[in-house]
Design a protein that fits this description.
Layout lengths: L2 E6 L2 H12 L6 E7 L14 E7 L2 H10 L5 H15 L5 E6 L3 E7 L12 H16 L5 E6 L2 H23 L3 E2 L5 H11 L5 E6 L6 E6 L23
Helix pairs in contact: 3-4, 5-6
């Protein structure tokens, strides 16, 4: 391996001159500063030049350095993170991932995965948030969706069913109904589900974490009005 020492006014100049002499780039050498430059007195007495040592790296070291600097694959990093947590919790599972241009969708399935969901999905949402941090640290801005046994999809279906049952009851009885407090994402499902249904108005009241949805009658409500098509097939007695 070649090694040279170069003296110049500044460290940058010394490095540039050394690279030119060796005919190499910065990533192919080890640079060691042997002496920092000093200006000296106003007459120039005591002035010191910068001295650097440049040592050529062998090919194997250069390749290893490049490999170490290769960006971490966000999907692989997230999968490892999730699997490490599941293994530490002794949860037997199958982890699947679907990736598109905007998101990473992970789904965990297994007989003992209920512990990952928690009360109203709080544990699952926390795990999803932590996985998002891992993905972002790996240099990706993709949205992370983490589900267990399609919990979120089933939760959404249950909320839609609850919303329609309550809306139909409201139209039949002429009364407004307050739903139990729920997270903002769940409230959004209720609002979106009932938007545009004649005679129905929804809005949220209360302060977090006890904010809830009110299913009320809109201005176009008429007593004994026909049930809108969207609600005709809704069974009010079906368990949600």
């Amino acid at each position: 391996m070649r090694s040279i020492e170069v003296k110049a006014k500044t460290i940058d100049e010394a490095v540039s001159q050394g690279l030119a002499q060796l005919g190499l780039t910065k990533d192919a050498v080890v640079i060691k500063v042997l002496q920092e430059p000093e200006a000296g007195s106003f007459l120039g007495f005591g002035r010191k030049s910068a001295i650097v040592q440049l040592t050529e790296l062998d090919e194997a070291t250069i390749e290893q350095t490049k490999a170490d600097e290769t960006p971490v694959n966000a999907k692989s990093a997230a999968e490892k993170f999730i699997n490490d947590i599941l293994n530490n919790m002794h949860v037997v599972n199958v982890l699947k991932c679907e990736e598109d241009e905007e998101s990473l969708h992970f789904n965990i399935s297994g007989d003992d995965c209920g512990i990952l969901i928690g009360r109203r999905g709080e544990t699952l949402r926390a795990l999803q948030y932590l996985t998002s941090l891992v993905v972002h640290q790996a240099g990706s801005d993709k949205r992370v969706i983490l589900d267990v046994g399609d919990y979120f999809e089933k939760r959404k279906d249950a909320l839609i069913k609850l919303a329609k049952q309550t809306a139909k009851r409201s139209l039949e009885n002429g009364n407004a109904y307050e739903l139990s407090p729920m997270r903002s994402l769940d409230r959004r499902v209720i609002h979106e589900c009932l938007t545009g249904i004649k005679g129905i108005l929804t809005y949220s009241e209360g302060d977090e974490p006890n904010r809830y949805v009110v299913i009320d009658l809109s201005e176009d409500y008429v007593p004994n009005m026909p049930i809108p098509e969207e609600l005709k097939d809704v069974d009010e007695n079906e368990e949600v």
